[in-house]
Amino acid sequence: MAEELRALPGVCVEEIRHRMVSGEISGSVAALAGLRSADDAFLEVTRFEGMERARVALALLAERAAAVDLRPALALLGALRPLPPRPALSLSASFVGRRNYKTDELKQTLARAIALPHGLAVESDDRKAPLHLRLVLEHGHARLGLRLTRQALHERGWKLAHRPGSLKPSVAASLWRLAGLAPGARALDICCGAGTLLAEAAEAGARVLGGDCDRDALAAAAANLRALGTAERIVCWDARALPLPSACVDVAASNLPWGRQVGSDALLEALYAGAAFELARVLVVGGRAVLLTGAPERFAPGPLRLEASREIGLFGQRPSVLVLSRPAQAA
After folding, report:
1. Which residues face 93 on adjacent strands?
2. Within this chain, do residues 15 and 118 fall inside the same structural domain, yes or no?
3. Of 147, 180, 211, which residue is a domain's last?
4. Residue 211 is part of a domain; what is its CATH number?
5. Which helix H or strand E contains 109, and what residues bound it?
6. 171-215 pLDDT tens trace
7. More confident site: 329 or 105
8. Domain identity same for 88 and 173
9. What burial letters (b/e) apply to 138-164, b meaning 16+ CB within 10 Å?
10. What is the b/e burial string over 181-212, where b = at least 16 CB atoms within 10 angstroms of the residue's CB?
11. Which CATH number fits the domain that encloses residue 24?
12. Helix, strand, coil share of the chain (percent; to 5)
């Protein structure tokens, strides 16, 4: 996400914290509404220290929140998108580590200290509220921000069908960035599931091709791609024996099956080994494959070159992103 932010005009990335990137923008905030790899984007309205784990922190939050003036941020949002005269406001809060208060208590404190004094009705359903105020606590550090867009950035209009373990579109966009996806590129997903990676690549202007051995997953992928308005090709296949010619794709990205999805370590290693050889065959020389797996120790690159391995946090798990490339000798 930081890389995508840095590429925007007028953006200066200042800080990278736990699941958060912050900075300043000198131009229009409208550019932030187009971020693909971010789950969400917020206009910061205040930050402060001293949010202890004890319940005394609630009193500090009430004091600091009562001093917040939302009008400058609301004016910026009003210039970006239409707001009703008295917009409803939804609230969310999260924190790292154990504390002696709950997120509901934090939201109630914000409602009393900010929403009501500003004449904003509080709406429990985020989808019905034109405004969303979020509080993030990390250790003693607090940040409060208004969401830039009406819905979270990771919510895509085409994501109609879901499958267990399906990626967030923002994660899919990040994998393609690591793969070096460019408009017009031939992009492949060998285990496409509900088609999230394929849809993200198609939205980026790529020519996509994907498949899966699960016909229910293929039906979900077809529904999502139709909602996007693309008629790209998806096929029922075995990732270890792709019905594709050699050197026919520029980049690949996949959320590989692992754990109970496969059944045993031996089956998983066989699947991974076959997939690695097939990726090396169908990628052009120098082409990249970015693979997400919760069992990186079971993956042998085979003819591919492992360039990087990064562990990420996802759905309470710690899977790894493997960045691989096809060297000339794999031809």
Report:
1. 135
2. yes
3. 147
4. 3.40.50.150
5. helix 103-110
6. 999 999 999 999 999 999 999 999 999 999 999 999 999 999 999
7. 105
8. no
9. beeebbbbbbbbbebbbebebbebebe
10. beeebbbbbbbbbbbbbbbbbbbbebbbbbbb
11. 3.30.2130.30
12. 35, 25, 40
Instruction: Choose between 29 and 195: higher pLDDT.
Output: 195
Measured CA to CA, the distance from residue 109 to residue 325 in angstroms comes to: 51
125 neighbors 149 (Cβ within 8 angstroms): no
Q: Do residues 190 and 169 lie in contact, with contact meaning Cβ atoms separated by under 8 Å?
A: no
Q: What gap in Å lies between CA 65 and CA 43, rounded to an integer? A: 15
Q: Does the pLDDT at position 18 exceed 80?
A: no
Residues 142 and 37 in one domain: yes
Mean pLDDT of the chain, nearest integer: 92
> Where does the pLDDT of residue 285 fall: very low under 50, low under 70, confident under 90, or very high at 90 and above?
very high
Tell me: do 227 and 323 sit in the same domain.
Answer: yes
Instruction: Return the amino acid letter for 16.
Output: I
Res 261: pLDDT? 55
CA-based angle 318:147:182, to the nearest 5?
60
Give the distance between the most distant pair of CA atoms in the chain: 68
Is the pLDDT assigned to residue 331 strictly greater than 90?
A: no
323 and 217 assigned to the same domain: yes
DSSP string, 210-254: EEES-HHHHHHHHHHHHHHT---EEEE--TTS-SS-TT-EEEEEE
Q: Are both 178 and 56 inside the same structural domain?
A: no
In a domain, 157, yes or no: no
Please indicate, yes or no, whether residues 68 and 120 belong to a single structural domain of this protein: yes
Q: Are residues 90 and 198 in the same domain?
A: no
Question: How many structural domains is the chain composed of?
Answer: 2
Q: Give the pLDDT score at 179.
A: 97
Residue 16: inside a domain, yes or no? yes
Is residue 10 within 8 A of residue 44, CB to CB? The reply is no
Expressed as residue numbers, the domain containing 101 is 2-147
